[in-house]
Amino acid sequence: MTIWLISYTARGRALAARAAEILKGAGHDCRTFALPKFCGDGDEPLTQSGADWAGAGFAEADALLFCCASGIAVRVIAPHVRDKRTDPAVLVLDEGGRFVIPLLSGHLGGANALALDVANRLHATPVLTTATDVNGLFAVDVFAKANGLHIESMALCKAVSAALLAGEKVGFRSDLPVEGALPMGLTTGDADLGIYVSAGNGQPFPRTLRLTPRPYAVGLGCRRGKSAEELERFLLDNLQKCGVGLHELRALGSIDLKKDEPGLAALSQKLGLPCVTYSAEELKAAPGDFTPSAFVQEVTGVDSVCERAAVLASGGTLAVRKVAKDGMTFALAKKEEAIRFE
C-alpha cells in the first residue's frame, strides 16, 4: 500500500517516523509529512492546509494515517469523503501510540486490516467499530475484496450485513469452486436475500447481491504523450469486442518505462484500477507464447510488452493477443480460480 502519514507536533512526528519505518519494513510505500518546524530526516514539510493535503492524499494514496487527535482527522478529510468503494483507508494513531482507530473505509479500503497490522507492530490496541467485526460476523465486503469480486449493489451489501446482524439467514450460491467452510449465518438453502458469485445475470434469490469475478487483466502499451481519453477509448473498444466488462478487470499492466506516463496514470486513477508496471527482466520471465516485435525489443529490451504484462498482472494465461492501433497496444489475460472463505 501507499501510505501517507501526517503529524502536527514533535511527539506526533516521532511516532509517525517510527510507524513509517515499521510499515516500510512490511513492504509498504510510506511518505511522512510534518510541520516545517518539526521536520526530521525523510519528512516532507506540510506547507498547505490539512484539507488540501488530504485532497491530494485521497487522489494518490491507499491509506492516510493521522498521528494526532481524531477530531483533526475528521475535519481535514470531511470535504473529500465520497464513496466507500473508492475512498482510501483513513486511520488515527494517538500521540501516545496506544490506540489505532480506523475512521474510514474499514473493509473495502482495508483500514481495519491495516489498523490490526499497525497495532500489532507498535504493540498498540486496535479500536474497530464496524458492526460485523464487533459481533464476529461474516462481512460480505471483506469477502469480496479478499477474493477480487466486484460488488454490484452497495445497497444489497448493506442489507446482507443488516440481515446477519439481525440473526437472519442469508443465502449463498457460487458458479466458481468454493474453498473453506460456509461462515455462520450463510446457507446454501432457500432465502429471501442471498449472495451470488457469478459473471452472469441470474437471480437465485428474490433479492440477489451479485458478486462478479474479476479474472481479467489488460496489458497496455503506448507511444509517449497518449492522452487518458485516447487510451480509454482504445481500451473500451477492445473490451467490447472481447465481451468483457470493465468491472471484470482486476488490473492494468505495462512496462516500468511507462510508470510515469501521464495518460496511463490518469486512466488508472479514473477507472480505479491499479496499473502494475514491470521491468524488462520481469516481463521476459512471464510464462507463455507471445507475439514478438523487433521494434519493441530494440526500444524496451523485451520482445513483447502488452501480452507479457497482461499475463503477469492477471497471474493467468493469455486470452487475447496483441491488438495495435494509433501507437497503442492491448492484450488480455485471464486467471480462473476458486473463491475462499478464510
UniProtKB/TrEMBL annotation:
Please give the organism.
uncultured bacterium Contig3b
The protein depicted here goes by the name Cobalamin (Vitamin B12) biosynthesis CbiG protein
Ranges for domain Cobalamin biosynthesis central region come to 138-188
UniProt cross-references to SUPFAM superfamilies, sorted A to Z: CbiG N-terminal domain-like, CobE/GbiG C-terminal domain-like
Q: Which residues form the Cobalamin synthesis G N-terminal domain?
A: 56-133
User: Which ranges carry the CobE/GbiG C-terminal domain?
Assistant: 217-333
Q: What InterPro entries does this protein's entry cite? A: CbiG_hydrolase, CbiG_mid, CbiG_N, CobE/GbiG_C, CobE/GbiG_C_sf, GbiG_N_sf
Q: Which GO terms describe its biological process?
A: cobalamin biosynthetic process
